[in-house]
Amino acid sequence: MSTEALIKATALNRYYGKYHAVKDVHLTIQKGEVLGLLGPNGAGKSSTMQMLTGNLSPSSGEIIINGVSLIDEPETAKSSIGYLPEQPPVYRDMTPREYLAYCAALHDVAKAQRKAVVDEAMDRCGLHAVPDQLIGNLSKGYQQRVGIAQAILHKPDVVILDEPTVGLDPIQIRQIRELIRELGNDHSVILSTHILPEVQAVCDRVQIIHQGQTVFADSFSAMAHSERASELIVSFSQSIDKNKLDSIDGVASVEALENNQFLLKGAKNESQQINPADIFKLAVANNWELTELTPKTETLEQIFMNLVHTDSDVHFGSDPDSYPVAKAEADAVWTNYE
Ligand SMILES: Nc1ncnc2c1ncn2[C@@H]1O[C@H](COP(=O)(O)OP(=O)(O)OP(=O)(O)O)[C@@H](O)[C@H]1O
Q1: Where are the domains of the chain?
Q2: What CATH fold (topology level) applies to the domain 7-224?
Q3: Which residue's alpha carbon is at the smallest distance from atom 12 of ligand 1?
Q4: Which of 12, 13, 16, 38 for a ligand 1 pocket mutation test, highest count of atoms within 8 Å of Cβ?
Q5: Each residue of 248-272: pLDDT tens digit?
Q6: Is 37 helix (H, G, I), strand (E, B) or coil?
Q7: What DSSP letter does each residue of 129-179 carry, written as one string?
Q8: The model's pTM
Q9: CB of 65 within 8 A of CB of 80?
Q10: 293 vs 275: CA distance, rounded Å
């Protein structure tokens, strides 16, 4: 099986004047992956996506799409990509059917196939209720669906969606996320967002961008694991000498909790993380009865904050999946939406 990446971007840089907005970003996406590009506003997500889609030229770096250089053969490379920019590129005075037929023509879909292609895209994006209404009269959620339909119309290998749920209400957000998850069955997807639960809900892998740089790129399980190892909770059946815990290799701080329980924080440097075996050894050497040794469970938002060190506008608490909207109610709203 070929493991060649569908997109391989190497050492991407982008300057706006003297401002270095994207700094040495590397990014790959494999077949069948949904990758979340996560970062606060201004992190460089849109600039990165515009470069990946050939809408913005990199100041330096290389982008290979399906084995084709985007710089050398832009037309061929771009044919493998569907793109929904942050502002959906829809014409408000056209209907979804007219607009998508126009997009199909732009994508060089043969005239005889356009109707079938448009019908399929409308069907996949749930536009069957509004095919002949003016786009300008549709809700923002439906307009976003039209934007996504134009991105998948020509059956690209990779669909790139820039902040696809911004400005939508909670029910629309949930529906668009569901649609993106479905797209992941047939396309590789790169999704940019500043909403943490969005990547958790939709993506297999996350790449966190902060101040133009990648600060983390891995699967969620690896992300959780890498940080959990740096904090441990330990408890003893009797009072112990806290200073001895302090002296364990890799321990940056020790916080006394309650009932002889302590929180040990490791140094940020991974090579200096706390080795649980050292705690066992210390307990045995001092004849302390160790009753608990647990990695401290951090939420993904704490992990993100540790990586990005910002009290920025990344949204943590507005996950519509956690809203108490009964499914029947949501379905009713969905049905009656337009
Ligand atoms: N055309 C431009 N000229 C000058 N600066 C720009 C331009 N486009 C973006 N920037 C700056 O580059 C940085 C990265 O912007 P970008 O839009 O890529 O970030 P982002 O992560 O997508 O943020 P947002 O979520 O707000 O769109 C920001 O500081 C932005 O102000």
Answers
A1: 7-224, 238-288
A2: Rossmann fold (3.40.50)
A3: 21
A4: 16
A5: 988 889 999 989 999 998 876 655 6
A6: strand
A7: T-TTS-GGGS-HHHHHHHHHHHHHTT--SEEEEESTTTT--HHHHHHHHHH
A8: 0.75
A9: yes
A10: 11
